[in-house]
Specification:
Catalytic activity (chains A, B, C, D): 5-(methylsulfanyl)-D-ribulose 1-phosphate = 5-methylsulfanyl-2,3-dioxopentyl phosphate + H2O
Family (chains A, B, C, D): Belongs to the aldolase class II family. MtnB subfamily.
CATH architecture of chain A: 3-Layer(aba) Sandwich
Number of domains of chain A: 1
Distance between the termini of chain A: 52 Å
Cofactor (chains A, B, C, D): Zn(2+)
Helix content of chain A: 25-40%
Strand content of chain A: 15-25%
Keywords (chains A, B, C, D): Amino-acid biosynthesis, Lyase, Metal-binding, Methionine biosynthesis, Zinc
Shape of chain A: globular
Oligomer: homotetramer
Largest interface: A-B, 23 and 26 residues
GO molecular function (chains A, B, C, D): methylthioribulose 1-phosphate dehydratase activity; zinc ion binding
Structural class of chain A: alpha+beta
CATH superfamily of chain A: Class II aldolase/adducin N-terminal domain
């Protein structure tokens, strides 16, 4: 567990890392770190902030009913509901939601199948799979405009085998026990998304 | 409204952002911020400046007849006429014109159809479209060498639904009410241009 | 030969270079510099460190039996065994193991053939091949989960002609007499991996 | 004309720009600025230097017979002969030789035709072509191992219409009257090389 200030600082560090990678384009995305599990309190980026230059007051303290716990002129992102559903389901400590061209591409190209299969790749070790022929399947859910429904769909699709869910034509939610673990998982899956896309393009060669 | 100095500083910040992204290659592109709407006065990059190291005197104050309002040895870019036509048509506060490989690719690949269709993508929210199956169409105009004609063509093709127009084999004009909004719109459309291109390449897979 | 501290500092510099390139995603990869050849002592990154912010105590001093020679709470990466096998076979002074999308792609696309052929390319000069029609073949070995076996396979496949071996769907081991040479070899092969991949995609054009 | 020190400083600035772009991988490439035309004296990077961290003594003063004019332990790159041939033929003031994946790809894909055609693209303006349907052709020469022969081939193929020549499977020579112009030309051609490659891949779509 963290104090809110520690969690907020961890969110800012994650935002700097993800911004630098270009993973938070056009003020999109939101990042959170758990402050307390019960009753639930999380530190999360506010709606519409430029993630490259987050200030302390861009991070809100939210309870499990999406109520803001600190005095602020800002309102939480509607996508906060997805974070809350995931914290409820898993004992994770940090959740990252970002949009990249490659995670969007695989979410669309494998969208009808509902999952992206990954087989026998070294970076699965970063997701906790150490066996030689590890095979995992990263779920894809439809991009519901109703965010309560999206939160339920993401939480339902999420399984313990992979700490991430793609939202079709939208982006990814990735999580971990700590901010470092969440970031490591996200990095690994972004690598795999680019790899899967590029391999698909090349395999067409014959 | 801004003072000229505030507008010029906003132009320099936008140029740093766009240069860092590699969106202003070979001294190309030009960026402007509105100073006053009536009579129109804008702060805009001069012709041929290296946008990575703009100085205060690289930003010119121009009226709606393309006359320079400040003492300077520099002349405005001929493409300033396109900015003026767009400020006339829309109540926007900032216009960004950049050249990227991906905006050029979609402008050419969809050039004969005259528009790039985008359907059901999350980043359309950054352009103000929040419905689940939002569908927009980003116009493409021919790259007229006559820049007065290009300005008219861009302004005619521009519609309220999307704050951007592609110029075929040339680049993009994107705008917004504020410098931040213009930048957000540009970021969203550059993401979508890369996505549309890469999806087209992959879909060939079958 | 170096002192351990000099070797550790060289490892940190290599890690900064490779991190900046994005070649060490999700805490993957490991980098080493030889301290003494006989008895063998090497400076190598510990398991699981974030390579973008290595501290002095993230670098371990290891002997040829993989025993840690310094007091530390950290344990060596299991992949250290591959480094030891390569130092035994070659008189090299530094070994770099990184994961990139492009080295993974060519390791998979050419995996069944067991090697990536490179012919008549200028960057082969960076690998020591100066003749006009130089042709080399970079070996690919299977990604054995048993790392002792992987170490043997890499060392067996390695030949004097090219200072690198691909591990299928995993990454690359590249080496050189000095840290600078190892880095130069790795840079050249990463360039060639991207080139080979992209040429393959384009040649499909006909 | 410059003093040697001014020219050397301009070379270092060009090297920082090109390194940052990733255009000088594995210590490859060489960059020069003219000091005096008659008798010819040029400032040029030495062989094998890491271009990301050039020191003053990494820049050599060379005459038209490739003799080093300053006391130094370093020797000039063999590719200096290509620079000398180009300074002899054109009244240019700076020459940049870099290796990129995209300039290598187009040099190979169009190698049998001996030139890359570019038609009606906005960035041709950066090369001095302002008409609406400008069409230019960038020459490609074989990658002769004999560098005197390569120098002659590059100089023969070079024509006034485009300030650049591709060397097949090797890289590009680009030049301009000033260091700024050489850099602008190189930036424009690198943009066009990536565009031509990616358009070729996409056009396969049909």
């Amino acid at each position: 567990m963290h104090t809110f200030d520690e969690a907020a600082q961890a969110v800012i560090s994650l935002a700097q890392f993800c911004s630098h990678k270009g993973w938070l384009p056009a003020t999109s995305g939101n990042l959170s770190v758990l402050v307390e599990r019960d009753p639930m309190k999380i530190a999360i980026t506010r709606s519409g902030a430029d993630k490259q230059r987050l200030q302390a007051d861009d991070i809100l303290c939210i309870d499990e009913h999406m109520q803001v716990q600190t005095e602020t002129a800002y309102r939480p992102s509607a996508e906060t509901s997805v974070h809350i559903e995931l914290y409820r389901k898993f004992s994770c400590g940090s959740i990252l939601h970002v949009h990249t061209v490659f995670n969007n591409l695989v979410s669309e190209l494998y969208g009808d199948e509902g999952a992206v299969p990954i087989h026998g790749h070294e970076l699965l070790k970063a997701l906790g799979h150490w066996e030689e022929d590890a095979e995992v399947s990263i779920p894809i859910v439809p991009n519901y405009a109703d965010l309560a429904r999206l939160g339920q769909a993401v939480a339902e699709a999420a399984h313990a085998e992979v700490p991430a869910v793609f939202v079709r034509n939208h982006g990814i939610y990735a999580w971990g026990d700590t901010p470092e673990a969440a970031r490591r998982h996200l990095e690994a899956i972004e690598f795999l998304a680019e790899y899967v896309y590029r391999l698909g393009v090349a395999r067409d060669i014959g």
